[in-house]
Specification:
Penicillin-binding protein, Beta-lactam/transpept-like, alpha+beta, Beta-lactamase, three-stranded antiparallel β-sheet, six-stranded antiparallel β-sheet, Diverse_Enzym_Activities
C-alpha cells in the first residue's frame, strides 16, 4: 500500500484517497475516477462561490438573509438559528451553532439573486470551470447536491492550498472561525463547545472527538459528507487530502479517518518529507 494510506485497507468497504501538497498529488490509492455523492462536502464548493461574490462586492457578510435578524454570515457559519432542513427557527441568530442545510441553501439563493445568475451556473463559471472540475455533477440543493470523482475534488483541494480565485482577506474569512465562541452539535460527533465553523467550512479547532487527524493543526478546515466523502486542508502542514468510501458515514469512519489523517501527516507532512 502507498505510504501513509495503509489505513484504507482497514475499512470493511471500498475506500480511496488522494494526498496533495501545493505542487500536486503526493500519493493516491483506490478508485479515483468513480463519481461519488459529495453530500455536505458540497457546502465547501457553495461557500467558495459565495466567497467569490463577496470578493467582487456583489454581497457583504452583513447582508440581511434568512430568518429575522440573520445575515449572510449567520447562514454560512450555521448560526442563523434555522433548523436542519426547514425554515423552522430554533432560536435567534448568533446564539448557538445549529447545523443547517437550509441555511446554506438560503445563502446560495441570496448570492444568486445578488449576482443575477442561477447558482449552479455561478458555481460552474466561477469555481468548477476555472479549476477544470469537468466531471462534477450538480443536482439538487447547494448544501448537499453535488457529485464528483476524487480526481475532480482534488483540483479543488489544490485551490484551497494556494488560492487563485479569491484574495487572501476573503479566503481567511472563509476558512477561519466566525463567531468562534459558539457551541453546538457536530453531526456524527455530538456536542462541541466551542464548535467553530468558517463560512461553509468546518474548522478543526480543539474538537474531540473529530474526523480529522488528531495530530493536525487546529486551523485545519474542510468537511465530511454523510455518504462517506471527506476533504480536509491542514494549512500548517501545507497538506490536503480527499477521501471517498463506498459506505455511508458510520463508526468505522469515526475510528479510521483520524488514524488515516495522522498517517498522512506523518508520511507527507513537514516532518515526514
Amino acid at each position: 500500500m502507498t505510504p501513509g494510506l495503509g489505513v484504507l485497507e482497514e475499512f470493511p468497504f471500498e475506500a480511496a484517497a488522494i494526498v496533495l501538497g501545493p505542487e500536486g498529488v503526493r500519493a493516491s490509492a483506490g478508485d479515483l475516477t468513480r463519481s461519488r455523492p459529495l453530500r455536505s462536502v458540497t457546502k465547501t464548493l457553495t461557500a467558495y462561490a459565495c466567497a467569490i461574490a463577496l470578493e467582487q462586492g456583489a454581497v457583504t457578510l452583513e447582508d440581511q438573509a434568512g430568518p429575522e435578524g440573520s445575515t449572510l454570515r449567520h447562514l454560512l457559519c450555521h448560526a442563523s438559528g434555522l433548523f436542519y432542513e426547514s425554515d423552522r427557527v430554533l432560536q435567534p441568530p448568533g446564539r448557538r451553532r445549529h447545523y443547517s442545510n437550509r441555511g446554506i441553501d438560503l445563502a446560495a439563493e441570496h448570492v444568486a439573486s445578488a449576482v443575477g445568475r442561477d447558482f449552479e451556473d455561478w458555481v460552474r463559471e466561477r469555481v468548477t470551470g476555472p479549476l477544470g472540475m469537468d466531471r462534477l455533477e450538480w443536482a439538487g440543493s447547494p448544501s448537499v447536491g453535488a457529485s464528483a470523482p476524487l480526481e475532480d475534488l482534488a483540483l479543488f483541494a489544490l485551490e484551497l492550498l494556494r488560492p487563485t480565485l479569491v484574495g487572501p482577506d476573503v479566503f481567511a474569512r472563509t476558512t477561519t472561525a466566525q463567531l468562534p465562541e459558539l457551541a453546538g452539535i457536530m453531526p456524527g460527533f455530538g456536542k462541541q463547545d466551542p464548535n467553530p465553523f468558517g463560512l461553509g467550512f468546518e474548522i478543526r479547532g480543539h474538537k474531540h472527538p473529530h474526523w480529522t487527524a488528531l495530530a493536525g493543526s487546529p486551523r485545519t478546515f474542510g468537511h465530511f459528507g454523510m455518504l462517506g466523502v471527506a476533504l480536509w486542508v491542514d494549512p500548517d502542514a501545507d497538506l490536503a487530502a480527499v477521501i471517498g468510501t463506498g459506505h455511508e458515514f458510520c463508526d468505522h469512519h469515526r475510528v479510521l479517518l483520524p488514524r488515516l489523517g495522522d498517517d498522512i501527516l506523518a508520511a507527507w507532512g513537514p516532518s515526514g518529507r
